Amino acid sequence: MFIGLLFFFSELPAQEKTFEYDASLLLISSSNDIRPMWLVSNQWGKFDQFGSSEGLVELGAQYSLVQTKTFNLTAGLRGLVNFDYSESALQEAFVKGNFWFVDFTIGKEQFSPIIINDELSSGMFLMNSNARPVPRITVGIFDYLPLGFTKNWVEVKGGMSQGWLNDDRIEKSNSANDVLLHEKFAYMRLGNTKIQPYAGLVHSALFGGTRPNGTEIPIDFWATFTASGSATLGGGEETNAAGAHMGMWDFGFTWENAFGNLQFYWQKPFADGSGLKIYNGDNKDYILGVLAHPKGLNWLTGLSVEVFKTDYQSGYGIPDPLYPVDYNGHSAGSIIWMRDIEDDFDGFMHALFPDTEGTTGWTEEGVMRELEIRLNEGHQYGGRDDYMNNGSYYNGWVYNGMNMGTALYHTAEKVRKYANSWEEYGQVNFYNNRVNGFHIGAEGVILPQLRYRVKSTYAINKGTYGEAFRGRSSWTRTEEYFFTESKKQLYSMLELSWDTPWLDGLQLSAKLAIDSGQLYDSTGGQLSVIYAPSIKK
Length: 537
Fold this sequence. Notes:
Elements: H1 2-10, E1 18-30, H2 37-40, E2 53-67, E3 71-82, E4 89-99, E5 102-108, E6 136-146, E7 154-165, E8 179-190, E9 195-207, H3 221-226, H4 236-239, E10 244-256, E11 260-270, H5 273-276, E12 286-294, E13 302-309, H6 338-341, H7 345-352, H8 364-375, E14 398-399, E15 402-403, E16 410-411, H9 412-418, E17 430-432, E18 435-447, E19 450-461, H10 465-468, E20 487-499, E21 506-517, E22 522-531, E23 534-536
């Protein structure tokens, strides 16, 4: 049936078909086993983030199969032939297109429908270009679509993606292979005006998979889709949310004026319901940025400025109140659910805290506040959100060793390479996800055929709650913890690209990247020879 539809559409009047290909030779070298961040990050995982040197040949091709007024279909392939042949990979293999206003992509493609500009900024918090493309099916409206019944005053975009993390993810008992990745996004924008405010919501979830002992994790897609509890999974996921969840609010506006094109954005990451409800004040983290493309300034064609804060994560308080002793069938350390007390708040308090026997008339609010004072050092429950981590999925948001989110977060593997040792709790993969800082990026033209790009990021690294304490639900501090005092680090990169006059489509590029500070020092470079012509039929 699909072949028949393809044949039908191919017979319709078509626009000009195109065949595009590119070939590149890429060489990198680093003074440290940890390569400078902007030497390897936000490049779709082409390079490993560790090692002294690496070289690869990149070959890509894309062909427009069908182009009509209502239906487009394109196929693409891309391979990375590493000098260490065992590290070679099929980077892209996809078909993509659109039917009327519906876009789709099937397979592995270096594409994300929500990216603003990962080459100039520090990168989107979620669904960015840092890791290799995940095999997936994505369907939706990828670019803003004006709604005619609103006279184009309202524009929308959105979509849903189903992916499969087919890398080797078995490291610990709470790891899982063949994990499924569910992602969706929904945006609305004001049209018919030069200043166009927008609001969007992005959701990413891990679910399913197989444990190291062969146990298959039950799947409840609807509970994962809605981030709600699931009786199918049971345990903590019956009362919390099925699977592992991350999300992001994305607000901002675009403005085209005489100076140029301007985009302001304010992104709010979250990992649970308390962070999702930004109106309650628990979500104090953000990425605040401006992306500008000036007009008439060859020396400055793009500018990115960002301020980011992701260290609060709903606060120091542990996620849930825990029984300090065994009580009424509940073991010490298990979660206290107010519904289990069955309105016997006096009996509950007298049993857990004998010094309260002279006090009666306890209410749910009074009990919760007393638990916060006695067991949570006065903090509200629901803190320590632990971005990109989840206790049910050890690896978290990682694919082939690279973060699927912001490159500013460091996995346990990376932290161990620069930090002194401590008694690790080791239940989750990201050991440094509480990061604040500032980023600036710029690009422009030096000479008619010579362009530059610079990026510099200053980061204050605070580790993670789960290692600062003996887990997210503990108030026992870790001795000799590397991030007890915040560690400052600067990541910088300069790139020069030259379009040669000898051959159309031939470009030579050189990068110099330096990381320095209280984490590690590393200097590296990249040389690239890129040939990217296009052929029209």
